[in-house]
Design brief:
Layout lengths: L1 H9 L3 H20 L9 H23 L2 H4 L8 H16 L1 H7 L3 H32 L11 H28 L4 H26 L5 H23 L1 E8 L2 E3 L2 E3 L3 E7 L6 H18 L4 H9 L5 H22 L2 H10 L2 E2 L7 H36 L7 H24 L17
Antiparallel strand pairs: 1-4, 1-5, 2-3
Length: 435
């Protein structure tokens, strides 16, 4: 009854109710767009062909596009071009001082970076859509294209690029006027939309005798264990004790209390697997639509289950775990702020020694977080290789889905608690993640 009453409290807050309904409405628009066909493409035949021939790699792409890629709908490119552009801009903030300076200029600098990211998204989408259109003309002697030629390529470029730009706009609107992170929720909606088909596929495999009941039970138990592990790690923190010295200002005494600095085990959240998937998907998506033997061979090597894919995926997860953590958490700034307000870590000298200590602790936590992300995200490849089941039952999809759900619930709880309502979970608030 407590959980039911907590959900009822959501609709007692007009602003929160409006944000949730707005978010659901825009996600519905996104899912409708995933079923609108691209002009000039025989979507049904293409979907059947890619499903039969695409295997794991096509299932991997469809996990992020919600099935739009295999059906060649107007949202076929999904949100991945935007994520790729975001990765490039974040890397450029480190490499190019001028862009790094923009990132430190507050809201004005952030708006300029967002504008450049949008331009990059359109450019990447245009390149991908052109290559896909050209590839479709050559696949199976052009049987998937009604009227091949430059008119088809240009229309496909405009359609798919506009679709990605529209998804990007939907994500921004959800972030500003809805609840949760818009881009993450769009990816979440794509993953959840594939869940019913995954269940049906698994049931069919079991009925056909390709998947034994024992393996099915083991699969379900593994899913529950992975979800429990994700929730446990995502809520895990290392609490650094902080002591504030007493300060006398006039007749009042400030400080003197003890508190703690919470450092999350996985500070980067779901960003590393999303970024890593985006980078791997970029060349693999292009290669999948080019009917050249050696290009197709590269595409197969970059599909889940292969050694090259696993090595690249894990390496990128480690890289982005450290990279993104360095962006969202600066030990030097934290140490300076503690020193400024009279705070210190017991046994550690304020200033540089504090920043070095925080850096060491954060590095070890990030290592644990990167290992945890890698283990969880490699589970799908094991399922493919050993049990021949839909891989989106495991790792990457569960990690993103559970992580985004926790973040969204934490934002809903923040609205409830600030208005003196009980949160969704009585025993403690769900901690959100940075980024």
């Amino acid at each position: 009854m407590g959980l039911i009453s907590s959900f009822q409290n959501i609709f007692k807050i007009a602003e929160l109710k409006g944000r949730i309904l707005f978010t659901l409405a825009l996600l519905t628009v996104y899912r409708i767009g995933c079923h609108i066909p691209t002009p000039g493409i025989n979507g049904e035949q293409l979907s059947e062909f890619l499903t039969q021939r695409g295997g794991a790699i096509m299932g991997f792409f469809d996990m992020f596009s919600g099935g739009a890629l295999s059906r060649a709908t107007i949202f076929a490119l999904g949100i991945m071009p935007y994520i790729s552009a975001s990765i490039i801009m974040q890397l450029l903030t480190v490499v190019i001082p001028a862009i790094g300076k923009l990132a430190k200029e507050g809201e004005a600098g952030r708006k300029k970076i967002v504008k450049y990211t949008r331009y990059g998204t359109v450019l990447i989408s245009a390149v991908q859509s052109f290559i896909i259109a050209s590839g479709l003309e050559t696949m199976q002697d052009g049987m998937f294209v009604t009227n091949p030629g430059w008119s088809f390529r240009i229309i496909t470029m405009i359609t798919l690029t506009s679709g990605t730009a529209f998804i990007m706009w939907l994500g921004e609107q959800i972030t500003e006027r809805g609840i949760g992170n818009g881009i993450s929720l769009i990816i979440f909606a794509s993953i959840v939309a594939r869940f019913p088909s995954a269940v049906v596929s698994t049931i069919r495999l079991t009925q056909a005798g390709e998947l034994s009941p024992f393996i099915l039970i083991l699969l379900i138990a593994m899913m529950v264990a992975v979800i429990a592990g994700i929730i446990y790690i995502e809520r895990g923190q290392r609490k650094i004790p902080v002591q504030y010295a007493k300060r006398v200002v006039g007749r009042k005494v400030y400080g003197g209390q003890s508190t703690h600095l919470p450092l999350k085990i996985n500070t980067a959240g779901v960003i590393p697997p999303i970024f890593a998937s985006s980078i791997i998907m970029f060349p693999a998506t292009i290669a999948g639509f080019i009917a050249i033997p050696w290009v197709q061979s590269i595409a197969r090597q970059l599909s889940p289950g292969n050694v090259l894919y696993t090595v690249l995926y894990v390496s990128m997860i480690f890289f982005f775990a450290y990279f993104y953590t360095a962006i969202v958490f600066n030990p030097v700034d934290i140490a300076d702020n503690l020193k400024k307000y009279g705070g210190y870590i017991p046994g550690i000298r304020p200033g540089q020694k504090t920043s070095e200590y925080l850096y060491r602790v954060l590095s070890r936590l990030t290592l644990i977080g990167a290992v945890y992300l890698s283990v969880v995200c490699v589970i799908p490849t094991l399922l493919i290789a050993k049990f021949n089941v839909p891989f989106y039952f495991g790792g990457t999809s569960l990690l993103i889905a559970v992580g985004v759900a926790l973040d969204t619930v934490s934002q809903i709880e923040s609205h409830l608690v600030t208005r003196s309502y009980e949160g969704l979970l009585k025993k403690g608030r769900v901690r959100g993640r940075r980024g």
